Amino acid sequence: MWKKAIIAAPYLWLLLFFLTPFAIVLKISLADPVFGLPPYSQSASLDNFAFLFSDKLYALTYLRSVFMAACATILCLAVGFPMAYGIARSKSGTRNLLLLLIILPFWISFLLRVYAWMGLMNSYGTINTLLMWLGITDQPIQLMYTDFAVFVGLVYSYLPFMILPLYASLERMDHDLVEAAQDLGASRARAFWDVTWPLARPGVIAGCLLVFIPAIGEYVIPYLLGGPESLMIGRVLFDEFFANRDWPLASAVAVILLLLLVVPIALLQRYQAREQESAT
Amino acid sequence: MKDFIRLRGVSKKFGDFLAVDNVDLTIERGELFSILGGSGCGKTTLLRMLAGFETPTSGTIEIDGVDVTQQPPYERHVNMMFQSYAVFPHMSVERNIGYGLRKEKTPRAEISKRVDDMLELVQLDELRSRKPDQLSGGQRQRVALARALIKRPKVLLLDEPLAALDKKLRERTQFELMNIQDELGITFVVVTHDQEEAMTLSSRIAVMDQGRFQQVGAPKEIYEFPTNRFVAEFIGTINTFKGRVAAKTDGGIKVFSTEAGITLTALGKQLVEEGQEVEIAVRPEKIFVSKEKPKNGEDACLQGVVDDLGYLGNRSLYRIRLESGKIIQVSSQNRRRSVTRFLEWEDKVWISWRPRSAQVLLD
To answer: For residue A118, what pLDDT band results from cuts at 50, 70 and 90?
Structure first.
C-alpha cells in the first residue's frame, strides 16, 4: 500500500505539473490571439502551426538552435571526456576533491556566472585587457555578442552535466579491461575505441541528452552573450510571449520544440531496448 | 635454448617504495613456473613487468633471446590471464576469444577456425554466442584462458588464476590448466598467494618476500628443504627450536636447544659456524607420537603432554606441550579405523623424529 503510494507520488506530481500545463499550452496553441484577458480566443485551428511552417525564419531558428545545441554538446563531450576519465582514474582522495570542484559552480547563481562571463569577454574586459597588455593584439577583439560567446557560455554552464554521468560510467569500468586489450595487441588508441568508448556509451548518451535538451531551449545565454543574429528558439519564444503578446503563436513554438526533443529521445530508447534484447 | 626467460638485476621502484629488488631469474621453455608470496611482496609487479605494463627501474628482461625490457605490451609475444579475468563485457564469448587475432589482422577464415579450436579446448562450444554476464565464474575464466592462448604466445602469464573459484572447481581447473600447458607446450608463469595452488601446479616455485626471491626450486625442495625461516613458515606449518651450533659432523649439524632441552641433529647447508645461533625446523607430519619411549637411539626424543587435539578425518592434529613450555604441532595419519581416541588431553607422550627430517634454518 505504502509502496504504491510512494511510487504514485512522483507520477501524480508529473501529471499535475507537467501534463496538465502541457495540455493548456496545446489548447492555447490552437487558438487565435485576441485583445483582452485571457489574450486568446476559444476557437481551435491549426493556423499557428501553418504560419510557423510558412515563415522561413522559424524553421531557420529551430535549425539554428539544434545546430548550436549539437555543437555545444560535442564540445562538452570533447572537453568533458578527458576530465571525467582523469577523475575516474585518480586516487579516491583526490577524486572526491575533483568531483567537488566540478559541482562547486552550482553554489553560485547561474545568472551571476553568465554575467561574470560578460565581464570577462567585454571589449575592455579581462580577456581583452590581458591580450592587449601581452601585445598579442592592439585593438580589442569582438568576443561578446557573437556565437563564440554563446558557445563559451553553453559549454561552461552545461559541462558538469556531461562530466558527472561520464564519470559514473567510467568509474565503474574495470581498468584491467583496457590492459587486457593492450595485452592482446591493441595500441593505446585502439584499446580506447575497442573497450573504453563502448563501455562508456551509457554515460556518453546520458551526458549528451542532459546537455542537448536544456541547451536547445536555452534563453538566458544567447540573450545575454549572443548577438542579434545568434537567434535561438528560446529567445523567439520569449519574444512572442512578452514582446508580441501572441500567446497562441508562442504556444505553438513551444509545442514544436517539445516534439523536436521527444522524437530523438523516443528513437534512442527504442534503439537501447533493441540492443538490450539482442544481448539476452 | 635453455634460458627462455631471463631476468637480470630487475628492480622496480614506486616512489620510495622498492617493490622488486634486484631479481635474477631464468625460466626454461615449457616450464610451469610459480611465483609465490603474500600480498605486497612484489610478485604482481614482477608479472606486470613481464607483460609490459610496468617498465623496470633497472635491469633487463629477455624472452626467447630478445630484450623486451622497453617493449610495450602489444608488441610482446606474451599474453596474460588477469585475476579479474577482464573478459570484455560488451563482446560475446566468440568475439572475446577472437579479439587478439583481429588485432593482428589475421584473415577471417583463419580466425574463425582458431576460435573454434579454442572453444573446443576450453569446452565452451555451446556458449559461443553468450555475453559474459550470462556465464558462471568458471566459464568466464575459461574464456579468459582461451583468449590469452589463441595468439599462441611464447609465455602465458596467469595472475592468481584460481583465486576466484570455489574449492571443488579450483581442483578441477588446476588439472585442466596443467593438461592444457602440457598439450600446448607454452611456458606458464603463475603468480599466486596460495601455496597449495603453487605446489600442485608448478614444476618450479619462487618464494618471494619484500621484493626478493627467498628460495627458488621444485615444490618438494621448497617444502622439504626450506633455506630460511620465511620459506619454511610460508609453506605449510612448521615447528622451530632456537639453538646454538654445538658441532658440525658428517651426520649433520648438532645444535643444542634449551627449548628442546637436548642436542638435536639436523641437515643443513654447511655454511654455519660453531656457536652460531640457528633454528631447527621439523614439519608436523615428520613427528611420531607414542605413549612409550621409542627405541631407536638416533632419533630425537622429547617428552611432553597432550595440550590439545583435533580430529580431521584423514588425520589428527596434536599440540604437545614440552617441559620447557614450548608447544609442538604434530600431524598423524589415522591409519586405523576406530571410534576411541588413541590419545586424550593431558596424556603423557613421547615425540620423536629422524635427524634427516630436521632442517637448519638461517634467518
So the answer is: very high
- What homologous superfamily does CATH list for B237-361? Nucleic acid-binding proteins (2.40.50.140)
Query: Is A195 in contact with B88 (Cβ distance < 8 A)?
Result: yes
Comparing A275 with B355, which gets the higher pLDDT? B355
Q: For residue A184, list chain B residues with Cβ-Cβ distance below 8 A.
A: 74, 79, 99-100, 103, 147-148, 151
**Interface contact A177, partner B, CB < 8 A:** yes
Q: Which residues of B touch A280 (CB under 8 A)?
A: 134
Between chains, do A190 and B99 touch, taking CB under 8 Å as contact? no
Task: Flag whether residue B153 sits within 8 Å of chain A, measured between CB atoms.
Answer: no
In terms of CATH architecture, what is A55-279?
Answer: Orthogonal Bundle (1.10)
CATH class of segment(s) B3-230: alpha beta
Kindly indicate the confidence band of residue A179, based on its pLDDT and cuts at 50, 70 and 90.
Answer: very high
How many angstroms from the chain centroid is the CA of residue B99? 31
Are residues B80 and A183, on separate chains, in Cβ contact within 8 Å? Answer: yes
Q: How far apart are CA A162 and CA A73, in angstroms?
A: 8
Question: What are the sequence ranges of the domains in chain B?
Answer: 3-230, 237-361
A176 in B contact zone (CB under 8 Å): yes
- Distance, in angstroms, between A187 CA and closest chain B CA? 6
The DSSP string of B26-90 is EEETT-EEEEE--TTSSHHHHHHHHHTSS--SEEEEEETTEE-TT--GGGSSEEEE-TT----TT
Is residue B348 classed as helix, strand or coil in its secondary structure?
strand
DSSP state of A220: H
- pLDDT-based confidence at B103, cuts 50/70/90? very high
pLDDT at B165 (0 to 100): 83
**pLDDT over 70 for what percent of chain B?**
99
B175 touches chain A (CB under 8 A): no
* From B82, B103, B151, residue closest to A176, measured CB to CB: B82
Yes or no: say if A117 and A225 are a contact pair by the CB < 8 Å rule: yes
Domain residue extents for chain A = 55-279
Dihedral sign for Cα atoms in the order A41, A44, A45, A48:
positive
- On whether ipTM exceeds 0.85, the answer is no
Contact between chains at B88 and A180 (C-beta distance less than 8 A) = yes
Question: What's the pLDDT band for B127 if we cut at 50, 70, 90?
Answer: very high
